[in-house]
Amino acid sequence: MKPSTNGVIDGVGDMAACLTPLQVFKCLAEDTRLTVVQLLAQMEELCVCELIWLLEKRAMPISQPKVSRHLAQLRDAGLLTSQRRGQWVHYRLAPDLPAWCHQILTTLCQANAREVSRWVAWLETMPNRPVRCC
């Protein structure tokens, strides 16, 4: 896939509309991908540097190449979109996810609210965290 003129990866939105429950559950069955999706559901958008920093703080740290592979799998499945800004890539949930998929993600975040809140609190302590524009 190639970046479009606005920096968003082309073709990803079309894939979100074709998601099946089996694809979603396969993606979410892996702990790192589940964590990323829950974080993005809570935070709306995160830079890859924020995701890597946060995932490295967990009890089972993960390398940057593995994080990138998980992000690519989620993007290729149609769950995420990405946009390059300078040297960093920013990720968000695909804007056209089906309603049933949003319901699943909402339920997952509610069921894991304490853990997601802890991750968000960790993220607020990140040194040199990218500044968000308005």
TrEMBL record:
Keyword annotations of the record: Arsenical resistance, DNA-binding, Transcription, Transcription regulation
Entry-linked SMART domains: HTH_ARSR (SM00418)
PROSITE patterns xref list: HTH_ARSR_2 (PS50987)
HTH arsR-type domain span: 13-112
Pfam families the record matches: HTH_5 (PF01022)
Highest rank taxon of the organism: Bacteria
InterPro entries: ArsR-like_HTH, HTH_ArsR_DNA-bd_dom, HTH_MetalResp_TranReg, WH-like_DNA-bd_sf, WH_DNA-bd_sf
Annotated protein name in UniProt: Metalloregulator ArsR/SmtB family transcription factor
Source organism per UniProt: Cobetia amphilecti
